[in-house]
Write a structure and sequence with these properties.
mainly beta; Neuraminidase; four-stranded antiparallel beta sheet; globular
Length: about 190
């Protein structure tokens, strides 16, 4: 799920399709009284050009929604490459290369955090999850977990991928976790 502040709309897309199907783009607009109605989202046909996935690393800025990789749901997930972006101002979807995100461009069950106070358009940080070797991927097998000392950074302004090594007491590799970020006041850092 992600929130588009300019239109005051909450969107939902993807997830594990228990019925074997694929989930399309849905939305609701909070009514200010604690309620709302889910509806198929406007522009759904454009969104459907791109495969809905489960386990993508997603985050949003005030201007864009970002979704990295994931897998097509089923008994065995098939990982997909790409960084899917939705531009709030233009309602345009774009799928860019994820080749620099991991050795094979695949990322499943990772977490993404948007860091607004760095770069010209902010930066995305991607942590953990699985980095499958190829599309023969079995969900929850755990053989390709990404070490949490590897922090992948994406600059949406230049379209460049970077990798930073974290040191100290690094947590063990994991998938299906949560990540939250915040910028402490006036110290030029971002904490996750």
């Amino acid at each position: 799920m992600w929130y588009e502040p300019a239109e005051n709309i909450v969107y939902e897309r993807g997830g594990w399709a228990y019925s074997g199907g694929s989930y399309s783009l849905w939305s609701f607009q909070p009514d200010g009284q604690g309620g709302s109605d889910w509806q198929p989202a406007v522009g759904n046909s454009i969104a459907e050009q791109y495969t809905s996935t489960f386990g993508s690393a997603f985050t949003a800025s005030d201007a864009n929604f970002y979704s990295l990789g994931g897998a097509i749901s089923g008994s065995i997930g098939t990982p997909v490459q790409g960084l899917l972006t939705y531009d709030f101002a233009t309602s345009a979807w774009n799928n860019a290369s994820s080749g620099g995100a991991s050795p094979n461009g695949y990322s499943v069950q990772s977490e993404a955090v948007f860091m607004p106070n760095f770069g010209n358009a902010g930066l995305l940080a991607i942590l953990g999850g699985d980095s499958p070797y190829n599309q023969s991927y079995y969900y929850e097998e755990g053989v390709s977990l990404v070490d949490l000392s590897n922090i992948t950074i994406y600059d949406p302004d230049s379209g460049t991928w970077y990798h930073q090594t974290a040191t100290g007491s690094v947590p063990p590799p994991r998938s299906e976790f949560c990540a939250v970020g915040s910028a402490p006041p006036d110290n030029g850092t971002y904490e996750m």
